[in-house]
Amino acid sequence: QSALTQPASVSGSPGQSITISCSGTSSDVGASNYVSWYQQHPGRAPKLLIYEVSDRPSGVSYRFSGSKSGNTAYLTISGLLAEDDADYYCYSYTTISVSTYVFGSGTKVTVL
Amino acid sequence: EVQLVESGGDLVQPGGSLRLSCAASGLTFRNHWMTWVRQAPGKGLEWVANINQDGSIQHSVDSVKGRFTTSRDNAENSVFLQMTGLRAEDTAVYFCATSTTGTSAMDVWGHGTTVTVSS
Asked: Can you list the residues of chain A whose pLDDT is less than 50?
């Protein structure tokens, strides 16, 4: 159960848009729409941003959006704010083992 | 307000055992799958295990199979992670989490409890 592959770091200036990729296989990201995204600030618990590929929980900013193409999922953050400086993880159901899940390797987003 | 509070983290020697607890409030606990996630120092998140609503189904990541067991007490609104044969690589902050959205995504998380395995 290897972690899904994310870029180690992505950066952008305030107001810009960035996209984080989450690369998996046909056994995880490509197997279902059970892909979600989390934001984590240092010393804090993760916060759910996106579930089922592209749905946003209530209270999450419209600036966060998700999509998927084949075995790769994407998180786009538009209109970057200083508070978006954090770690981001994708998360997917995997068919490799019954009813198990796997996180991405994590991406550090730096707002310049 | 839905809340999860973990406890039980400690410093333990390699080969030792530890039982983590997670107490839930503000939700109908017996209706929810519960999940354990861990994060080693300076590392990413790792899905560890989950348990279904009545405790009859548990799944875990290969690296803890045969060593960690998840259980729950719906009368006490609590879920537990029994850890045995602890190794240095089990050192991490352990979070419990659940979904109130009816999906697999966890929208409620505890603050975490720290397990350190060291001699």
From this structure: none
